[in-house]
Amino acid sequence: MTQVLDDITCRELVELVTGYLEGALSDADRTRFEEHLEICGACRTYIEQIRLTIEASGQLTEEALEPSARDAFMDAFRDWNRSRSNPGTSD
Amino acid sequence: MSSLAATLRLRGLGREYRPRMSWLKERLGRGDTETDLVERLRDGDEQAFSDLVDQHGATMLRVTRLYVRDRAVAEEVVQETWLAVLNGIDSFAGRSTLKTWIFRILANRAKTRAEREGRSVPLSAILATDAATGEPSLDPDRFFGLDHPQRPFHWAARPRDWPHDRVLERETLELIQSTIDMLPDTQREVIRLRDVEGWDPGEVAEALEISDGNQRVLLHRARSKVRAALESYLDPELSPS
Q1: Which residue of chain B has the CA closest to A82?
Q2: Which of A29, B214, B225, B238 could be disulfide-bonded to B210 (CB atoms 3.0-4.6 Å)?
Q3: Is B102 helix (H, G, I), strand (E, B) or coil?
Q4: How far apart are the C-alpha atoms of B57 and A77, rounded to whole Å?
Q5: Cβ-based contacts of A20 with chain B (< 8 Å)
Q6: What pLDDT sits at residue B136?
């Protein structure tokens, strides 16, 4: 019954999900992973939940830079630009 | 790739998901537009620089704060990085993307500054330790034990389908945001870069100077926790928080 020992369990599958989605599993592990999914609806549901988690995270707003920091960077740019076009007069 | 894997991957991407700043990403994307952007920066085009700051500035500041805690110091590091980018733009050869190049400069500057500020443990070591710490993705009670006669390590309390609409509701997204905010620093940063901002795995590994494997472990931990928080919220009967 080596076949049985080779099968991955649900508990193992949840730890391999990210490796699977990243395409980082070995061919053998990927095959075992997919074979398990074919017969296990609960694990298919789990992967679907991970997929929804990723999709929902993608909907979050990317944070914006504080105006004060933004202004400081733009000022640095203007200084750089000025000193570059008038090398003698900067500082 | 088998058809099952193809289906899962296709379903995982695309869909009517539209990143907020996609127009900007398109403008700053690879290829001709990036060449164009580099040209404009070389010409001292303020709008080009302004777009770049809007796209990367907040992320740069956040990544820097993994190395140096102090906000004002972190801002200085980002400012120095911008100047290094501008001073080096003439020699930027496009062998990597502009983004990768900028974040590589940033990581070097932040690391040097952290050493000067006396942060004794390098970030790379912290990240590697975090990644090596064993931590199950789920409560072990969700699975049968080894002693189960028929199905050892299979689901004892299987996950149940979530209503797709509820997952994308504002309140749910707020829960995801607060869950991400409470993650350990390194997991939080990896999931933000990957899943919120849509970076490639390689870009994240390079910007944080960690291995691809550690990047994956941190992402795995982070996603597993966010999923668990969603389950507690969407299916409290199954998974009380």
Answers
A1: B44
A2: B214
A3: helix
A4: 13
A5: 5
A6: 81
Reduce the DSSP state of residue B84 to 3 states and report it: helix
Task: Give φ, ψ of B45 to 5 degrees.
Answer: -75, 115
Q: What does the alpha-carbon distance between residue B182 and residue B228 come to, in Å, rounded to a whole number?
A: 14
Q: Using DSSP, state whether B180 is helix, strand or coil.
A: helix
Burial of B122 (0-12, 13-18, 19+ CB in 10 A): middle
Place of tokens 């998974």: B239
Least confidently predicted of A37-46, B2-11, B43-52, B120-129: B2-11
What is the distance between the alpha carbons of residues B42 and B176, in angstroms, rounded to a whole number? 40
ipTM of model: 0.88
Q: Is the per-residue pLDDT at B30 higher than 90?
A: no
Q: Which residues, including other chains, have CB under 8 Å from residue B47's CB and lie 6 or more apart?
A: B40
CA B215 to chain centre: 9
- Could you tell me how many helices (H) and strands (E) chain A has, helices first? 5, 0
* Sequence-distant (≥ 6) Cβ neighbours of residue B239 within 8 angstroms: B139, B157, B228, B231, B232
Minimal Cβ distance to A69: which of B75, B137, B226: B75
Distance of CA B68 to CAs A37, A80, B185, B232, Å? 44, 25, 12, 34
Query: Residue B240 has what pLDDT?
Result: 62
Distance, in Å, from the CA atom of B41 to the CA atom of B51, rounded to the nearest integer, reads 11
Half-sphere exposure of B77 (CA within 13 A, CB side): 33
CA neighbor of B184 nearest in space, from B232, B156, B224, B146? B224
